[in-house]
Design a protein that fits this description.
With 277 residues, the protein is an alpha/beta fold. The chain contains 11 helices and 9 strands. An 8-stranded mixed β-barrel has the order 1-2-4-5-6-7-8-9, surrounded by 4 helices. Helix 6 links the parallel strand 5 and strand 6. The chain is globular, with a radius of gyration of 20 Å. The N and C termini lie far apart (69 Å). 33% of the residues are buried. Bound molecules: ligand C2E and calcium ion (CA) (3 copies). The site of one calcium ion (CA) has 5 residues, from strand 6. It comes from Methylophilus flavus.
């Protein structure tokens, strides 16, 4: 009836208003989050399955707000992107990560590569290569200690621009990896043109690897594709010994996930790296 649809409409529009209010609230709070020291970078270890040694960590952003609590990156990163704040937040994360590499090297933790997630908005910023170079120089860190994680989406809008950005970053000597590999839309031909070092097998394929034949087949295919192109593979979201054993058997190079550790704050990550060298 007419009455029901009116109520239905009003309900929907109230929901939208609640959403919009929260978005506005979050964007306003995010604008000040760096200055108010509410952001931190956590680090999740990555293990080389061949040498059994820790080889890297992924830097993951955390936001703790006094009233809003812990806001998840899956909620605030898209808002940072749509508001443009991702440029300043992203360069802050890069600087934290590179400074952390320097501190670890001073503490005798060498051979740990830190990978930083790059938004496609940062990737389209022509200032990115000079920013990365300036930060590496500021902290006296060699470029091969830094890895940048991109998603397949970066090449979607402007493939030529993506190729020249990858070339510029590659020339600096930083490593590039493709995050969430297999979940995007791009064609495989870009792997040939792009200066990619590593593929990150998405955790959605890893989750049911012990039971689901299709997921098994997909993961094996990605590992073999990478190997034949001379790329490394890392599986993310590894939670069980069974998943680890499967990945080892099929020649995956590295793993990352709760089986090793949750992402840790700087001090805890330092202790973990020292204890597991
Ligand atoms: P991502 O890059 O795919 O990061 C992996 C996510 O999986 C992280 O979630 C991590 O905490 C979680 N994870 C790690 N191991 C396991 C596991 O064994 N099981 C399960 N179920 N999950 C695991 P998180 O930290 O909430 O980050 C979510 C997403 O937010 C990231 O996905 C990334 O896309 C984005 N993000 C986080 N930090 C940054 C950042 O500094 N910059 C940008 N642009 N994006 C970021
Ligand atoms: Ca990532
Ligand atoms: Ca991922
Ligand atoms: Ca299935």
């Amino acid at each position: 009836t007419k009455k029901e649809s009116r109520n239905g409409y009003r309900f929907f529009s109230n929901q939208m208003q609640i959403q919009t209010t929260r978005h506005l609230q979050l964007v306003n709070a995010l604008r000040q989050a760096i200055a108010l020291k509410q952001l931190t970078v956590h680090y999740q270890p990555q293990l080389d399955l061949h040498t059994k040694k820790l080889v890297g960590v992924e830097a993951l952003l955390r936001w703790s707000h006094p009233q809003l609590g812990e806001v998840q990156p899956t909620e605030f990163i898209p808002l940072a992107e749509s508001s443009g704040l991702i440029i300043s937040i992203g360069s802050w994360v890069l600087e934290q990560a590179v400074q952390q590499i320097e501190r670890w090297q001073e503490a005798g933790i060498t051979n740990i590569c830190v990978s930083v997630n790059l938004s496609s908005i940062q990737f389209r910023d022509p200032e990115l290569p000079s920013l990365v170079q300036a930060i590496l120089q500021r902290y006296h860190v060699l470029p091969q200690s830094l890895e940048l994680e991109l998603t397949e989406g970066v090449a979607l809008e402007n493939p030529e621009g993506a190729v020249s950005m990858m070339d510029a970053l590659d020339q600096l000597g930083v490593r590039l990896s493709i995050d969430d590999f297999g979940t995007g839309y791009s064609s495989l031909s870009y792997l040939k043109k792009f200066k990619v070092y590593k593929l990150k097998v998405d955790q959605s394929f890893v989750r049911d690897i012990s039971t689901d034949d299709e997921d098994k087949a997909i993961v094996i295919a990605i590992i073999n594709l990478a190997r034949s192109l001379g790329l490394k593979t890392i599986a993310e979201g590894v939670e069980t010994p069974e998943q680890k054993a499967f990945l080892l058997t099929h020649g995956c190079d590295e793993i990352q996930g709760y089986l090793l550790s949750q992402p840790m704050a700087s001090e805890e990550a330092t202790a973990y790296l020292l204890a597991n060298q």
